[in-house]
Amino acid sequence: MTPEPKRAAPRTTASAAPTDSTAGGAGGALGAAGTGTATEGETVPTVPPGESTAEMVDVSTLLERGRELTTPVLRAAVDRLAPPMDTVAAYHFGWIDAEGNPADGDGGKAVRPALAVLSAQAAGAAPEVGVPAAVAVELVHNFSLLHDDLMDGDEQRRHRDTVWKVHGPSQAILVGDALFALGNEVLLELGTVQAGRAARRLIAATRALIDGQAQDIAFEHRERVTVEECLEMEGNKTGALLACAVSIGAVLGGADDRTADTLADFGYHLGLAFQAVDDLLGIWGDPQATGKQTWSDLRQRKKSLPVVAALAAGGPASERLGELLAADAKSSDFDSFSEEEFAIRAALIEEAGGREWTTGEARRQHTVAVRALETVDMPDRVRAELVALADFVVVRKR
Amino acid sequence: MTPEPKRAAPRTTASAAPTDSTAGGAGGALGAAGTGTATEGETVPTVPPGESTAEMVDVSTLLERGRELTTPVLRAAVDRLAPPMDTVAAYHFGWIDAEGNPADGDGGKAVRPALAVLSAQAAGAAPEVGVPAAVAVELVHNFSLLHDDLMDGDEQRRHRDTVWKVHGPSQAILVGDALFALGNEVLLELGTVQAGRAARRLIAATRALIDGQAQDIAFEHRERVTVEECLEMEGNKTGALLACAVSIGAVLGGADDRTADTLADFGYHLGLAFQAVDDLLGIWGDPQATGKQTWSDLRQRKKSLPVVAALAAGGPASERLGELLAADAKSSDFDSFSEEEFAIRAALIEEAGGREWTTGEARRQHTVAVRALETVDMPDRVRAELVALADFVVVRKR
Fold it and tell me: Hey, which residues does A157 pair with through a beta bridge?
């Protein structure tokens, strides 16, 4: 079997070995913030915005604009699905409730649409040019949520029952397939050469997404996963589609491949930063904010970055953690574990340096991402907005 | 919700109402063959080849050539999947057994690859030009098999356990997704304008495929389905992808949209003919040839063409059948029904005219398909080969 390149864009390496990074570097301010415990009411790790113009940008306005431009086109696309798939998809997106009544659901953070719209502007085009890219990426992202929730047996998403819980596994498979197809159709029906180039990048990102889910499932059955394997998986699951979002808007706006590749590089590392923060929130996040249970990822035995970094660090806490997790894997009592038993594991992860390393990793990936942007020629305002979004991704609480 | 056109190509109407068609027309020779019962060792309905040059074409050579050109490229594409998806896909295609040992499996009839290769030749291009089209269509077709088998709970395909039975539901979902993505990638990575046009047709056909599966699932829960609804569903599930196969090879070969649409029209009606024969085989097929149980579709309560035509025909047998099927839907003993109970239902379908009508429908769709071909300018040899394939589709026993 010949392995093939799995990502949409080349990238540089941001990750240091866990032990290197917990030991050294400019983690001062970040490290201090990083020791807060969200479940105790404090904030999650933050990255201080630099001296850039990003401070002048209101991120919520940016996200809102992306949402406002994208949602009507997204809804019109979903309305094209044959019944009952249109209804099931509308439930998934939070536009209606399980009984079919209109709802004002939580449609997610909408980082991808904002990136796609800015991507078009980075190429000097109007924001509207990026809308088909935003819609396509949202459709593919939600295809993967529908299928992953079913494969992972996740019963809740965005504070609501998942589609397979409400409408059954067949509808989750079928509507996922339909959203996947629709995402590609939205691009291809533009009928231009640029649309073909964008579609090619989208399909490569989708393949990476699927590879990442395959790795995620495989890792569940393994006792040990290396930090490198975890980063590769997270690059596939999260980095590839953010890379696509922030590059195919530009492609639709006429950008050449080199520019698109560099923007993709920004998005890929931003995705890794995003995922590192997600992994921190998955253990120490505030359930009120995340909509998930306390110690959510530990309950699901996820081999997320803090866990694999802690296991790789060595030392007494790391070894004790390894023993506990190995015993947990065989335990029949796991499902009835108390809060305290998860808290013990979380404390060991922290003691072994897994939390601090992951916090540092979010910062490192953020830095690499922002540095990639510097090599692309674009309006200052657009650059500042992209940096502001990158900052937002690593300071969010949900 | 705004409905959208669900098919890849315009088409003419071949179907008469069941009662009209069983009464009239040139069904003589066909009707006679159609009364044979495959399970009693006789042949399934046949369509006599016309006076065309099709008689001089060896269909098995045509199918073999399509398979030989396509299989190495298909295997190379599947090899690009990350483990364990490559292995699961190889099992599905019959290249390895459940233990991972090389197998010489039944890869299906390979009608689609043969059509895609001929499609390129219809546009005056070399057969090889159609190979990416053939591979793309095979990948998308097999994506739908993987997902449909899981949704329908089908445990056997091509005389072997289905993927979800052997590798679990998650792998069936995931590898299905991967084949879907790969099919689009194979076309888009050609990077030409023609490839973009072909990809757009492929994604439209895939959307139709998904619509058809949605209809198929919805019909299972309904007491009555009209003949028109059944034909629309079968057009989506079978017609759209055959239409795609026989048109996108030509698109890659430089054909204009009008030519591609007409070839798609041929493929769409050929698909409906194919499905009518499949529906006959699903009730009266020889289990040895089909690899399915006796009365397979009746055991699965499928509302296939012979059933809906029989129910629509009226008269004593039709009414008795309706009563029996309505009672079956509520029966808790259905799973332990004897051969004889299914034989009674099959006899009623036949007595009500459902078998004869479906046989006639296969012939009518075949005629419309072949007539569409006459309006496309292409080498005589290629036309004869397409007609020979069309004839094969309606005389097959599996």
Answer: A160
Is B178 in Cβ contact with A210 (below 8 Å)?
yes
Query: Which H, E and C letters describe chain A, residue by residue?
Result: CCCCCCCCCCCCCCCCCHHHHHHCCCCHHHHHHHCCCHHHCCCCCCCCCCCCHHHHCCHHHHHHHHHHHHHHHHHHHHHCCCCCHHHHHHHHHCCECCCCCECCCCCCCCHHHHHHHHHHHHCCCCHHHHHHHHHHHHHHHHHHHHHHHHHHCCCEECCEECHHHHHCHHHHHHHHHHHHHHHHHHHHCCCCHHHHHHHHHHHHHHHHHHHHHHHHHHHHCCCCCCHHHHHHHHHHHHHHHHHHHHHHHHHHCCCCHHHHHHHHHHHHHHHHHHHHHHHHHHHHCCHHHHCCCCCHHHHCCCCCHHHHHHHHHCCHHHHHHHHHHHHHHHCCCHHHCCHHHHHHHHHHHHHCCHHHHHHHHHHHHHHHHHHHHCCCCCCHHHHHHHHHHHHHHHHCCC
Which of A147, A182, A200 comes nearest B173 by C-beta? A147
Of B83, B181, B204, the CB nearest to A206: B181
Q: Tell me the two tokens of residue A16.
A: 């240091």
Q: Is B16 helix (H, G, I), strand (E, B) or coil?
A: coil
Q: Which whole-number Å values give the CA distances from A35 to A295, A297, A351, A363, in the listed order?
A: 16, 19, 11, 15
- pTM strictly above 0.95: no
**Interface list for A 178-197 with B (CB within 8 A):** 178, 180-182, 184-185, 188-189, 191, 193, 195-196
Residue B26 is inside which H or E element, if any?
none
ipTM value for the complex: 0.88
SS3 (DSSP) at B9: coil
CA distance B120 to chain A (A): 21
Interface check for B211 against chain A (CB to CB < 8 A): the answer is: yes
Q: Find the CB nearest A82 among B176, B191, B214.
A: B214
Q: Was domain A18-395 assigned CATH 1.10.600.10?
A: yes
Please report residues of B whose CB lies closer than 8 A to that of A4.
80
- Show residues of chain A in contact with B200, CB under 8 Å: 185, 188-189, 191
Q: What is the pairing mode between strands B160-161 and B156-157?
A: antiparallel
Sign of torsion over alpha carbons B285, B12, B267, B393: positive
CB contact under 8 A, A185 and B196: no
Residues 20-79 of A with CB under 8 A from B: 76, 79
* Residue B263 · residue B28 · CB < 8 Å: no
| Nearest-CA distance B51 → chain A (Å) | 42
Could you tell me which chain A residue has the CA closest to the CA of B198?
A: A188
pLDDT in tens for each of the 398 residues of chain A?
A: 333 433 333 344 455 445 433 333 333 333 333 333 333 333 344 444 444 454 578 999 999 999 999 999 999 999 999 999 999 999 999 999 999 999 986 667 899 999 999 999 999 999 999 999 999 999 999 999 999 999 999 898 888 999 999 999 999 999 999 999 999 999 999 999 999 999 999 999 999 999 999 999 999 888 899 999 999 999 999 999 999 999 999 999 999 999 999 999 999 999 999 999 999 999 999 888 877 788 989 998 889 999 999 999 999 999 999 999 999 988 888 988 999 999 999 999 999 999 999 999 999 999 999 999 999 999 999 999 999 999 999 988 77
CA–CA–CA angle A177, A182, A186 (5° rounding): 160
Break chain B into its structural domains and give their ranges. 18-395
The A residues from 268 to 287 touching B (CB cutoff 8 Å) are none
Q: Which residue of B has its CA nearest to A146?
A: B173
Closest residue, chain B, to A179 (C-alpha): B207
